[in-house]
Every structure is written in structure tokens, then in C-alpha cells.
Amino acid sequence: MSEVVKSEFGPNLWNMWFTEFNKEGVGLTLKVSRVLHSAVSDFQRIDVIETEEFGKALVLYGSIMITEKDEFVYHEMISHVALHVHPKPSNVLIIGGGDGGTLREVLKHQRVQSAQMVEIDPEVVEVSKRFFPAVASGFGDPRAKVIHDDGARFVANTQEKFDLILSDSSDPVGPAQVLFQQTFYQDAFNVLNDDGIFVAQTESPAFHADNVRKIYKNLSAVFPTVMMYLAHIPTYPGSLWSFAFCSKRYHPLEDFRPEYGNITGLDYYNADIHRGAFALPNYVKALLL
Ligand code: SPD
Asked: 170 CB under 6 A from ligand 1?
């Protein structure tokens, strides 16, 4: 006799799909096997879904922040590029990054003595610890410190100086909007040491061309060196994601030192990727003119 297995989630869920609308008329659709968490924090809507192809995904404000399958690309690329250029990145500041993935990568470098993460939304940190322990693995490191504050307010007020600032924000809607403005970039510049580096995630050149243009204009008004680099992230809009390397002194290619890292076990970043990531297609170069 066969047994009917009842799903506690109901029969329809097995045909459930999540669509992130990337821009008018375009979206990424993933088949969902379970909804694990849905809440509205003081700052945003937070969802954790389990997808068939990419494993668990953290969705903030309707936009995918990480998936288990491809988070390594983003987190390795926002962290290791600058960490292989700066000779002494002792004091690192992460703005946003509540899931902990950037913190995890930064802490792989033994030259980092302190890594502070300023995340506005404590619920994102809690959700990541609960559902993404492999991403949140750096929170227990004695060099890590988590501050719950607005990142823009923090850099405007802190008396501390940093060697490296990584702006691991969500998209420029909702609470993260301010992290793409010139005022924030100027405040970040001011709290960097004289040879400091600032790296920011700068959205999709394919789908957010106007945003990308504005962001680079704002950055170039502040930093003497601003160079875009790219990474392939399957679940981000357009699958092609951009980052800005902004610096007071160092050049991302001339001052690149593969030996600074002395780390193994990365799944995306390597010396060839470091160099190749700064090669831009012509339509992307045109956004920066
Ligand atoms: N559209 C997605 C942009 C997300 C950038 N931040 C991701 C945070 C991961 N730590």
C-alpha cells in the first residue's frame, strides 16, 4: 500500500517561482522549493528562500543578495583585489555586508588586524547566522567587530582611520541609497589613511547604465584613481557585476602583488582574474567617459 506523503508547505509550493525584477521588462526567475523565512525589519523586507538551482538565497527588498551557489564570486571579488594591492591593510572597514561574506574573505588575510563591519540592520546579521552559517563564519573571529549603525553616518562621524574600506551595500534603493552619493564617498576618503583604498560594489553595467555612470562620476569627483573591474555573478542582474577600485596612491595593476595574499582555496579570484577583471568591454568603457 502506498503512503501519501503530505507536505507541510502545501501542494502548490512545489511549483513556486521567485522573480527578481531587474529592470522594466526583465527579470531573473528561480524555482523555489521552500520559503524558509519572511519578515519585515525596521529597514526592509527580508526573505530566505530555498531554490532548486542556487540553494538558499537571501533576498532583501526583493533583490537577491546572496545565494549559496554563487556568493563566493561577489565576496572574493569585493575583498581580495584590494587586499592584493595594499601592502599593509591592518585596519579594514566594511560598510553593509550584513550577511558576513565580505568579512569572511577579509579575515582570510593574516595582515588584517581589525575588521569592523557597520551594518544598519541587525536582523540581516541574525538571519545570515541562522540560515547561512558558512557565509557568516567570520563573526566569531576576535579581529571582527560588528557595529549596527548607518554606514554613511558612521564614516561622517568616526575619528578612526582605515587602510581599506569596502562598501558592500545592497542596491541604491531603500536604506542603501545614501551609500552611492558623493557625500558618502567624500567622507570615506576623509577617513582613509594617506595610502588608503576604497572599493564599492557598483551595480550592473548592462542593466543599470545610468546608475553606473552617476556612481563613477561621484567617485571620480573624490578619488584620484577610480578604476572599474568586473565579475561574472549568475544571479545578479545581467550576470555581469561591477566594482570600483578607488585609491589615494596605489594602482590596482601596477601595485598588484600576488604574494600578499598567501591564501589558497578560493573559487573565483586568482592572479589572472585580478588582471583580467580590469579589462572592460567598449560599451562599459563608454559609461565612464
Ligand atoms: N543586486 C544585488 C546587489 C547586491 C550587492 N550586495 C550584496 C551583499 C552581499 N554581501
From this structure: yes
Give the separation between CA 150 and CA 166, rounded to whole angstroms: 15
pLDDT mean by block of 10 residues, the chain; 289 residues: 45 77 93 96 96 97 96 98 98 98 98 97 98 98 98 98 97 87 97 98 96 97 98 97 98 96 90 98 96
- The structure's pTM equals 0.94
Residue nearest to atom 6 of ligand 1 (CA): 170
* Chosen CATH of 71-288 out of 2.40.160.10, 3.30.980.10, 3.20.20.70, 3.40.50.150: 3.40.50.150
CA of 233 to the centre of ligand 1 (A): 10
Distance from Cα 66 to the centre of ligand 1, integer Å: 7
Nearest alpha carbon to residue 206 among 28, 22, 69, 63? 22
Active site residue 267: no
To test ligand 1's pocket by mutation, which of 201, 239, 243 has the most ligand atoms within 8 angstroms of CB?
A: 201
CATH architecture assignment, domain 2-66: Roll (2.30)
